[in-house]
Design goal:
The chain has 17 helices and 19 strands. By secondary structure, the chain is an alpha/beta fold. The protein has a 7-stranded antiparallel β-sheet with strand order 13-12-1-5-3-17-18.
């Protein structure tokens, strides 16, 4: 399933519209190409995961200034009537080349390039940066968690701490793309078809006054889907009560799915609880851990041989706490018949329509990427940017979320473990093709 809540062209920074008005007055209507990319890696990052493209394409396909939009712009007193009349007729008519969602990419590589009449290409900048930047950031952090978990299940628990309801939806989708097995977000389950998962809060146990009474009540309500939160009062006593209820469930023909730890020394407690469950013949009962986990703490738990089968990952994931933004930019690289580039120190760009090529070694691992011109080809190199929109129309149906998730899994398997290191000690090689480099030298001259 897909979600498309129209934002409209007013979801933009004012200067996009004032520039558009200036272009209009000077009749600058030629096609322009803009390239969207991330300039630098956040701290301790080696790679990114492409996400958010479907939202972008849906918004571009429906881009219109409705009467209410025009009325608002008119009352600002900033824009001439002739320009507002032009906006009434505007719709996106451009072409889009983009990395498919789930693709692994690296700093300075185009995530997408858009070619459209200048005004159309300009006013969509803010939306594209907001949409791609956030979802790629969350998908990238999720991938780090998936790698750290070494095959253990991960569940998105971040909804109550994400910064707004839209962010909560995008986090659930982005985490699922990157390999999470489910989310606590019920609306995301409905809209995106993501498996939903949840247990109980401490307030549930407190309402009953004892672990045993709370667990018994919950098992009666959910005999085939019960997970008990065991640390409300005393974790080991809670585990003991969970064992009693689980054994009674077994006599009644049901099975306890799991117990959840939410505080304390997870390594020690998980081993103790695992021993108690196994001693009682409850080897099938899983141990789920939550409470402040991110990729680093997951890695510590796994390396510490914690007996944890699944992790609920919340706040640190949903806000990408250690790297809450990406240095993502959208820069003009061609206007009309002229290739253009920016020469600001530390913020240089690469002029011209581009393509990203990936070379792999004989064993299937990524060896090197090459940023080249759109019309270049390299033997045995895979071009990554795909034509996804032509003349304002998508060229093929959007892939399903499951297909995107599978694409990520395939992509991630091709990235060597040295680049997945949480400490970011080794950076993947990205080169510029000789033709593209020569073009840049020509533009500078």
């Amino acid at each position: 399933m897909t979600v498309n809540h129209r934002l409209g062209p007013l979801f933009t920074d004012l200067y996009e519209l004032t520039m558009a008005a200036g272009y209009f007055d000077r009749r600058l209507f030629d096609p322009a190409t803009f390239s969207l990319f991330i300039r630098n890696y956040p701290s301790q990052r080696n790679y990114f995961v492409a996400a958010g493209l479907q939202d972008c394409l849906q918004e571009l396909a429906s881009l219109r200034f409705v009467e209410e939009d025009i009325a608002f712009l008119n009352q600002t007193g900033l824009f001439r009537a002739e320009f507002l009349s032009y906006l009434k007729q505007l719709q996106f008519s451009g072409d889009v080349y983009a990395l498919p969602e789930g693709t692994i990419f690296f700093a300075n590589e185009p995530i997408l390039e858009i070619t459209a009449p200048l005004i159309e290409a300009q006013i969509i900048e803010t939306f594209l940066l907001n949409t791609i930047g956030f979802q790629a950031l969350i998908a990238s952090k999720s991938a780090r968690c998936v790698h750290s978990a070494s095959g253990r299940q991960l569940i998105d628990f971040s909804l109550r701490r994400t910064q707004g309801h839209d962010a909560g939806m995008k986090v659930a989708r982005s985490t699922y793309i990157a390999g999470f097995t489910g989310t606590s977000n019920v609306l995301a389950g409905k809209e995106y078809g993501i498996p939903i998962s949840g247990t109980m809060a401490h307030s549930y146990v407190q309402a009953f006054g004892s672990d045993f009474d709370a667990f018994t009540a919950y098992a009666d309500t959910f005999p085939n889907n019960a997970v008990f939160l065991i640390d409300t009062f005393d974790t080991l006593k809670g585990a003991s009560e969970a064992v009693k209820v689980a054994l009674q469930m077994k006599k009644d023909g049901h099975s306890l799915l799991g117990v959840r730890l939410d505080s304390g020394d997870m390594n020690r407690l998980s081993r103790q609880v695992r021993h108690m469950l196994d001693e009682a013949g409850l080897k099938e009962v899983k141990i789920i851990a939550s409470g402040g986990f991110d990729e680093v703490k997951i890695d510590e738990a796994v390396k510490g041989e914690a007996k944890i089968d699944a992790f609920g990952v919340g706040t640190s994931l949903g806000v990408s706490a250690d790297a809450p933004f990406a240095d993502i930019v959208y820069k003009m690289v061609r206007y009309g018949q002229r290739n253009v580039r920016k020469l600001s120190p530390g913020k240089e760009t690469l002029g011209g329509d581009k393509q990203v090529f990936r070379l792999c070694s004989a064993n299937g691992f990524y060896r090197q990427d090459m940023i080249g011109l759109r019309d270049e080809t390299f033997n045995a190199a895979l071009p990554l940017l795909e034509s996804v929109m032509e003349s304002g129309r998508t060229v093929r149906p959007h892939p399903s979320l499951e297909d995107i998730r599978l694409a990520f899994k395939t992509n991630f398997a091709g990235l060597s473990d040295i680049y997945k290191d949480l400490a970011a000690s080794t950076f993947y090689p990205v080169e510029i093709s000789p033709r593209l480099r020569k073009l840049q030298q020509t533009l500078v001259a």
